[in-house]
Amino acid sequence: MTLDRIIGGIAVAFGGFLLLYGIPANVRMVQNAMPYPAMFPQVAAWMFVGLGLIQLLVGKATFTFPSGKQFAAFLGVIFLVLIMVLLLERLGYVPVAIGLMVAITLLSKERRPLWVLVMVLGLPVGVWLLFEQILQRPLP
Amino acid sequence: MPDISIVFSGLADAFTLGNLLYILLGVTLGQIVGAIPGLSILMALAIAIPLTYSLDTLTAISFLISINKGGTIGGAVPAILLNTPGTPESAATALDGYPMAKKGQGGKAMKYSLYYSVFGDVSSDIVLITVSLPLAALALKMGPIEIMTLMILAFTVIAGLVGSSLVKGLMSVAFGFLLASVGLDPAMGSARFTFGFIELVDGVPLTAIAVGMLAVSEIFVKISEFVVPTEGEDATDSAQVFDKGDQNVTFAELWANRVVAFRAMVIGTVIGAIPGLGSTTAGFLSYSISKQSAKDPEAFGTGDPRGIAASEAANSAVVGANLIPLLTLGIPGNIAAALLVSAFIIHGVQPGPLLFERQGQLIYGLFGAMLIANVFNLIVGQFGMRFWAMIVSAPAKVVYGGALLLCITGMYFAAGGVFGLVIMLAAAVIGYIMRLTGFSVIAFIVAFVLTPQLERSINQAILITDGDFSELAHHPIAIGLLVASVFAIYFLGPWKKRESLIK
């Protein structure tokens, strides 16, 4: 089975889930009224079911995935940024931004002193100055 | 017919030294803000409005409109150099601008963008100045039924064009429908898919979605490539785009795309004149139509200047045309225009049908200021491009690191703090997966942008017609748009491009 067909199956299941549980549980259901709040979500759900079925039956494409290492690196960068985002209001902008840039500098193997300095200090302090001093927007 | 002395008095007001300086400052600020991914023109406008309290009305409004105009130029710079639209309306520019930059023609792509943008802007302003009242009257005739059919046309054109597979393109549209449903529904005002989060009552923030999917996911991919380089590619060179051949654009090269640019200007002007539709819609719609009508549509997306012309002339044309309903009817065409309304009111001016009659000198002064802003946009753009060229000559690691930091910081303000940032990161992951599996991110975003307007207009149309669609017979514009939709489906549908139904 091609990955396209698997995606088709997932789309059908997702559409069915929306119709049977997702929409009734999260959207006000109204009888005998037009227009009604669930109209567009239901259109979307039926589209998932119908298009997913087509994909499931006749899909034939497959994809080239990145290498495991690259995918892990991608997830690692996201994780790093997520941590930064969650710590932003707790530790303050400048320390967290410097921490993120140190991590990215180490991961990207940048070793030239000038550019290391620009990345680790120049960018966080520059962005802080832009928002705090020029645009007058207080950062955490 | 306006009193000619009022017209000249107004234009003379625009040429005072103070006014000229504020226009220059506004254009420069707009270009800088637009060029920085994660910062938005809306944010710049919102910040700038309180700064205009002490200015006279004309200078204040000119300054704000100049920021708006500068932003449309600036937004194209990172879209071309980094595939990271500085503003959502520049997203379509990245489709051909970035491939051009990757070929070593980043400077050329930016010049195309600047010239076509200024062309769209100037032309739109001229339309605003000369035919604002008749066009506004036409826009006024576009009731919910016409808007609904226009939205249907927009969907049929865009969904059929983007992506390699029609089925996947439509699934992306369905996903756009679903995500755009989050928040209060327009029918009864009840919450949908908010899961108890108060932040979701207003819906999922568009900026977080657009920047996450279009910019941050690309930045993550680039940074992860620095960590684990792709075989045969030197990731550190990916943002160095000025090193190959002639970067100048000749008049003959610009003239070669005159049809595309003119059509884009018309699309941008019409979209801008219709309340509720904005620059992003205009850019994508124009791009899609240009691609579809080209003899060689496969050339679009590979670094074709027509793609840049289609996007930039259209999105810039919206800025001037947006003022048509604002100045003549008092209806803000988009959020930027809504901010301008607040600025007008701060200065004791009520936009509306009586504005031309009561504040004619101010309005024609404003028109003069808009034309001056276009000239400054061109001049500042020329210098700004050199400046951005210097920044982009820095190592890609620094550029992408800086872009990530700016996206995070800008989004912290633009999309409601940490919650908006989490949505931006989620959008980045979803965008990455969609690209990997062949789903159209652009179809999704366009559907996400258009769905609230479509849903609102469908709801209004159902209420107005009481569900009786034979009422459509009394709306010739709507019928024309539906016929155009049928044509679009015919030309884009599987019977026309059977091979692209499933890929």
Structure in words:
The complex is a heterodimer of chains A (140) and B (503). With 140 residues, chain A is mostly helical. Chain A is built from five helices and no strands. Chain A has helices at 3-26, 39-58, 68-91, 93-107, 113-134. Chain B has 503 residues and is an all-alpha fold. Chain B has one domain (4-500). Chain B has a two-stranded antiparallel sheet with strand order 1-2. In chain B, strand 1 (183-184) and strand 2 form a beta hairpin. The longest helix of chain B has 36 residues, at 106-141. Chain B starts with a helix and ends in an 11-residue tail after the last helix. The relative contact order of chain B is 0.19. Classes of the chains: A mainly alpha (140), B mainly alpha (503).
Keywords:
heterodimer, A: 140 residues, B: 503 residues, mainly alpha, 22 helices, 2 strands, globular, disordered C terminus
List the helices and strands and how they pair.
The complex is a heterodimer of chains A (140) and B (503).
Chain A lengths: L2 H24 L12 H20 L9 H24 L1 H15 L5 H22 L6
Helix pairs in contact in A: 1-2, 3-4, 4-5
Chain B lengths: L3 H11 L2 H19 L5 H11 L5 H18 L1 H7 L8 H12 L3 H36 L2 H18 L4 H15 L2 E2 L6 E2 L13 H22 L23 H6 L1 H16 L5 H15 L11 H17 L1 H7 L5 H12 L8 H4 L1 H33 L3 H19 L2 H20 L4 H25 L10 H17 L11
Antiparallel strand pairs in B: 1-2
The percentage helix of chain A is over 70%
Basic shape of chain B: globular
Major sheet of chain A: none
Low-confidence residue ranges of chain A: none
Count of beta strands of chain A: 0
Averaged pLDDT of chain B: 79
Helicity range of chain B: over 70%
**Terminus-to-terminus distance of chain B:** 58 Å
Q: Over the alpha carbons, how many angstroms does the gyration radius of chain A reach?
A: 24 Å
